[in-house]
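Ticket reopened. Same input as before:
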Amino acid sequence: MRMTNLDQDVKELVADIIEVDAASLDPDANLVEDLGMDSMMALEILASLEKRFKIKLPEDELPKITTVNRAIEVARKYVK
Amino acid sequence: MSSKVATLPQQLDFEQIKEIIPQRFPFLMLDRVIELEPGVRAVGLKNLTGNEWFYQGHFPKKAVTPGAMICEAIAQTGIVFFHAMHPDDRDVTYLMGSLKIRFLEPVWPGDQLRIEVTPIKVTSRAGILSATVMVEDRAVAKGEFALSAKENQAL
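Engineering reply: fixed in the latest deploy. New output:
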Protein backbone atom coordinates (compact mmCIF):
# COMPACT_ATOMS: atom_id res chain seq x y z
CA MET A 1 0.00 0.00 0.00
CA ARG A 2 1.43 3.36 -1.01
CA MET A 3 1.97 5.80 1.85
CA THR A 4 0.52 9.29 1.54
CA ASN A 5 2.36 12.37 2.75
CA LEU A 6 0.31 12.30 5.95
CA ASP A 7 1.17 8.63 6.51
CA GLN A 8 4.85 9.29 5.99
CA ASP A 9 4.81 12.38 8.21
CA VAL A 10 3.14 10.46 11.05
CA LYS A 11 5.58 7.59 10.69
CA GLU A 12 8.59 9.90 10.81
CA LEU A 13 7.16 11.85 13.72
CA VAL A 14 6.55 8.66 15.73
CA ALA A 15 9.97 7.23 14.80
CA ASP A 16 11.65 10.42 15.94
CA ILE A 17 9.95 10.34 19.35
CA ILE A 18 10.48 6.66 20.07
CA GLU A 19 14.00 6.94 18.66
CA VAL A 20 13.92 4.29 15.95
CA ASP A 21 14.79 4.43 12.27
CA ALA A 22 11.68 5.44 10.30
CA ALA A 23 12.65 3.28 7.31
CA SER A 24 12.70 0.10 9.38
CA LEU A 25 9.66 0.92 11.53
CA ASP A 26 6.88 -1.64 11.00
CA PRO A 27 3.65 0.41 10.94
CA ASP A 28 1.80 -2.46 12.61
CA ALA A 29 4.33 -3.07 15.37
CA ASN A 30 2.94 -2.44 18.84
CA LEU A 31 4.51 0.78 20.06
CA VAL A 32 4.50 -0.25 23.72
CA GLU A 33 5.22 -3.96 23.61
CA ASP A 34 7.51 -4.08 20.56
CA LEU A 35 9.10 -0.67 20.57
CA GLY A 36 9.24 0.37 24.21
CA MET A 37 7.03 3.46 24.05
CA ASP A 38 6.12 4.82 27.49
CA SER A 39 3.18 7.03 28.50
CA MET A 40 5.17 10.25 28.17
CA MET A 41 6.29 9.33 24.66
CA ALA A 42 2.64 8.67 23.78
CA LEU A 43 1.74 12.12 25.03
CA GLU A 44 4.63 13.59 23.02
CA ILE A 45 3.27 11.87 19.92
CA LEU A 46 -0.16 13.36 20.58
CA ALA A 47 1.33 16.85 21.06
CA SER A 48 3.50 16.50 17.95
CA LEU A 49 0.54 15.39 15.83
CA GLU A 50 -1.37 18.47 17.00
CA LYS A 51 1.52 20.77 16.16
CA ARG A 52 2.37 19.13 12.82
CA PHE A 53 -1.20 19.06 11.50
CA LYS A 54 -2.57 22.05 13.41
CA ILE A 55 -5.33 19.94 14.96
CA LYS A 56 -6.70 19.42 18.47
CA LEU A 57 -6.79 15.83 19.70
CA PRO A 58 -8.86 14.95 22.76
CA GLU A 59 -7.30 12.93 25.57
CA ASP A 60 -9.40 9.87 24.79
CA GLU A 61 -7.54 9.43 21.49
CA LEU A 62 -4.34 8.74 23.45
CA PRO A 63 -4.98 5.04 24.21
CA LYS A 64 -5.85 4.43 20.56
CA ILE A 65 -2.32 5.23 19.42
CA THR A 66 -0.96 1.69 19.70
CA THR A 67 0.76 1.41 16.32
CA VAL A 68 1.91 3.81 13.60
CA ASN A 69 -1.10 2.80 11.53
CA ARG A 70 -3.44 3.60 14.42
CA ALA A 71 -1.72 6.96 14.83
CA ILE A 72 -2.30 7.59 11.13
CA GLU A 73 -6.01 6.73 11.56
CA VAL A 74 -6.30 9.15 14.48
CA ALA A 75 -4.57 11.94 12.53
CA ARG A 76 -6.71 11.34 9.42
CA LYS A 77 -9.88 11.65 11.48
CA TYR A 78 -9.02 15.20 12.50
CA VAL A 79 -7.08 16.57 9.52
CA LYS A 80 -9.44 18.41 7.20
CA MET B 1 -24.77 16.92 47.49
CA SER B 2 -22.44 19.79 46.75
CA SER B 3 -18.94 19.02 45.58
CA LYS B 4 -16.21 21.06 47.16
CA VAL B 5 -13.25 21.81 44.95
CA ALA B 6 -10.29 23.42 46.64
CA THR B 7 -9.47 26.78 45.17
CA LEU B 8 -6.01 28.24 45.05
CA PRO B 9 -5.04 31.87 45.28
CA GLN B 10 -3.42 33.41 42.23
CA GLN B 11 -0.21 34.05 44.15
CA LEU B 12 1.57 31.77 46.58
CA ASP B 13 4.08 32.58 49.28
CA PHE B 14 6.87 30.27 50.42
CA GLU B 15 4.75 28.47 53.03
CA GLN B 16 1.92 27.92 50.57
CA ILE B 17 4.39 26.54 48.01
CA LYS B 18 5.60 24.03 50.60
CA GLU B 19 2.05 22.79 51.01
CA ILE B 20 2.02 21.92 47.31
CA ILE B 21 5.48 20.68 46.39
CA PRO B 22 7.31 18.00 48.38
CA GLN B 23 10.86 19.29 47.82
CA ARG B 24 12.70 20.77 50.78
CA PHE B 25 16.18 22.15 51.45
CA PRO B 26 18.50 21.73 49.66
CA PHE B 27 16.18 21.12 46.73
CA LEU B 28 13.44 23.70 47.11
CA MET B 29 13.95 26.05 44.17
CA LEU B 30 10.89 28.30 44.40
CA ASP B 31 10.44 31.27 46.72
CA ARG B 32 7.17 32.67 45.47
CA VAL B 33 4.53 32.16 42.80
CA ILE B 34 3.43 35.50 41.37
CA GLU B 35 0.92 34.30 38.78
CA LEU B 36 -1.20 31.19 38.84
CA GLU B 37 -3.94 30.70 36.32
CA PRO B 38 -5.11 27.07 36.27
CA GLY B 39 -4.48 25.48 32.88
CA VAL B 40 -3.03 28.70 31.49
CA ARG B 41 0.22 29.62 33.27
CA ALA B 42 2.29 29.53 36.42
CA VAL B 43 5.04 32.05 37.11
CA GLY B 44 7.50 31.39 39.92
CA LEU B 45 10.38 33.35 41.43
CA LYS B 46 13.63 32.04 42.85
CA ASN B 47 16.09 34.44 44.42
CA LEU B 48 19.65 33.16 44.21
CA THR B 49 22.04 34.26 46.93
CA GLY B 50 25.74 33.62 47.13
CA ASN B 51 24.94 31.35 50.08
CA GLU B 52 23.22 28.66 47.97
CA TRP B 53 24.68 25.24 48.83
CA PHE B 54 25.53 24.38 45.23
CA TYR B 55 27.92 27.30 44.75
CA GLN B 56 30.34 25.56 47.11
CA GLY B 57 31.18 23.14 44.36
CA HIS B 58 29.87 24.88 41.22
CA PHE B 59 32.46 26.31 41.07
CA PRO B 60 34.81 26.87 44.01
CA LYS B 61 36.59 29.76 42.28
CA LYS B 62 33.63 31.23 40.40
CA ALA B 63 30.01 30.70 41.44
CA VAL B 64 27.78 29.84 38.47
CA THR B 65 24.25 28.49 38.91
CA PRO B 66 24.11 24.85 37.79
CA GLY B 67 21.77 24.25 34.86
CA ALA B 68 20.44 21.25 36.77
CA MET B 69 19.13 23.56 39.49
CA ILE B 70 17.46 25.80 36.93
CA CYS B 71 15.79 22.65 35.57
CA GLU B 72 14.65 21.84 39.10
CA ALA B 73 13.11 25.32 39.43
CA ILE B 74 11.29 24.71 36.13
CA ALA B 75 10.03 21.31 37.31
CA GLN B 76 8.77 22.76 40.59
CA THR B 77 6.92 25.54 38.79
CA GLY B 78 5.45 22.76 36.63
CA ILE B 79 4.23 20.94 39.73
CA VAL B 80 2.51 24.11 40.92
CA PHE B 81 0.94 24.47 37.45
CA PHE B 82 -0.40 20.88 37.59
CA HIS B 83 -1.57 21.17 41.14
CA ALA B 84 -3.58 24.26 40.24
CA MET B 85 -5.47 22.15 37.70
CA HIS B 86 -6.04 19.29 40.15
CA PRO B 87 -6.03 20.88 43.60
CA ASP B 88 -7.71 17.90 45.22
CA ASP B 89 -4.96 15.47 44.21
CA ARG B 90 -2.94 14.94 47.35
CA ASP B 91 -1.46 11.47 47.21
CA VAL B 92 0.52 11.85 44.01
CA THR B 93 4.14 12.50 43.11
CA TYR B 94 5.01 14.40 39.96
CA LEU B 95 7.87 12.96 37.95
CA MET B 96 9.65 14.53 35.02
CA GLY B 97 9.55 12.36 31.92
CA SER B 98 11.71 14.39 29.59
CA LEU B 99 13.32 17.78 29.28
CA LYS B 100 14.66 19.62 26.27
CA ILE B 101 16.30 22.86 27.30
CA ARG B 102 18.62 25.51 25.96
CA PHE B 103 20.65 27.59 28.39
CA LEU B 104 21.08 31.02 26.88
CA GLU B 105 23.13 32.89 29.47
CA PRO B 106 24.94 32.05 32.71
CA VAL B 107 23.09 32.80 35.95
CA TRP B 108 24.99 34.35 38.85
CA PRO B 109 24.53 34.81 42.60
CA GLY B 110 22.20 37.77 43.13
CA ASP B 111 20.06 36.98 40.11
CA GLN B 112 16.32 36.44 40.45
CA LEU B 113 14.90 33.68 38.27
CA ARG B 114 11.42 34.30 36.87
CA ILE B 115 10.15 30.93 35.66
CA GLU B 116 7.08 30.91 33.42
CA VAL B 117 5.40 27.64 32.57
CA THR B 118 2.63 27.31 29.98
CA PRO B 119 0.95 24.20 28.56
CA ILE B 120 1.69 22.63 25.19
CA LYS B 121 -0.48 19.54 25.74
CA VAL B 122 -2.01 18.60 29.05
CA THR B 123 -4.09 15.57 29.94
CA SER B 124 -5.61 14.70 33.30
CA ARG B 125 -2.49 12.89 34.53
CA ALA B 126 0.39 14.27 32.48
CA GLY B 127 1.50 17.16 30.38
CA ILE B 128 4.06 18.62 28.07
CA LEU B 129 4.86 22.13 29.17
CA SER B 130 6.85 25.02 27.84
CA ALA B 131 9.19 26.96 30.14
CA THR B 132 10.94 30.29 29.85
CA VAL B 133 13.32 31.46 32.54
CA MET B 134 14.11 35.17 32.71
CA VAL B 135 16.58 37.23 34.75
CA GLU B 136 15.35 40.83 34.60
CA ASP B 137 14.47 41.28 30.92
CA ARG B 138 16.83 38.59 29.59
CA ALA B 139 15.84 35.02 28.78
CA VAL B 140 18.43 32.74 30.38
CA ALA B 141 16.84 29.37 29.55
CA LYS B 142 14.05 28.07 27.36
CA GLY B 143 12.70 24.59 26.96
CA GLU B 144 9.98 21.99 26.97
CA PHE B 145 9.41 19.30 29.54
CA ALA B 146 7.03 16.50 30.36
CA LEU B 147 5.59 15.85 33.81
CA SER B 148 3.34 13.04 34.92
CA ALA B 149 1.45 12.44 38.14
CA LYS B 150 1.98 9.03 39.71
CA GLU B 151 -0.11 7.67 42.55
CA ASN B 152 2.19 7.31 45.54
CA GLN B 153 0.91 3.77 46.05
CA ALA B 154 2.12 2.85 42.57
CA LEU B 155 5.67 4.09 43.17
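Confidence is low (pLDDT under 50) at residues 1-5 of chain B. DSSP finds two helices and six strands in chain B. Please confirm and we'll close it.
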